[in-house]
Amino acid sequence: xxxxxxxxxxxxxxxxxxxxxxxxxxxxxxxxxxxxxxxxxxxxxxxxxxxxxxxxxxxxxxxxxxxxxxxxxxxxxxxxxxxxxxxxxxxxxxxxxxxxxxxxxxxxxxxxxxxxxxxxxxxxxxxxxxxxxxxxxxxxxxxxxxxxxxxxxxxxxxxxxxxxxxxxxxxxxxxxxxxxxxxxxxxxxxxxxxxxxxxxxxxxxxxxxxxxxxxxxxx
Length: 219
Known about the structure:
Largest sheet: 2 strands, antiparallel
Radius of gyration: 22 Å
Distance between the termini: 77 Å
Strand content: under 5%
Strand order of the largest sheet: 1-2
Helix content: 55-70%
Number of strands: 2
């Protein structure tokens, strides 16, 4: 029974329970996709139905993760199936648990405000934004923002962080960013911003049927 309820897995060579970062990132990607679609439907179509179902599933999933075991979390099982052929990347389970407690707290607030009270406000909008940011950083960059706050809250360094970000080390040359590279990024952003002003009228035109355009071009 203790093995079932243990938070994390016992792996040889690691002195604390660990989790597979690869399946966690895959899971974050799945959750981000459905959360993004649900939020966009709420914003642009005024339909909160999918968002309510997502919140319900998200809340149940995190309850299973924290109070039963991550190995029985439906979304983590899906993530495991997706990356099952990849070599595991082990991370400390303790900081992940702390991050998921934050996620559970946000899910409870959203469940109360959107599902039970059937309401929306600046509060729900901010929480949706926070959740999207957390999930995107986890899935795209492998950065657990909730895990970063673990050290601040407990005053000690977390063990076995993804990419060893918890350990201070000198960057290799391939990791360093030059002034020219930063300038290119700034110019790229400036180009996009300028394009919004220069082409807003052209880009706002509704697309036409391609075959109709070709027929007109042929005369």
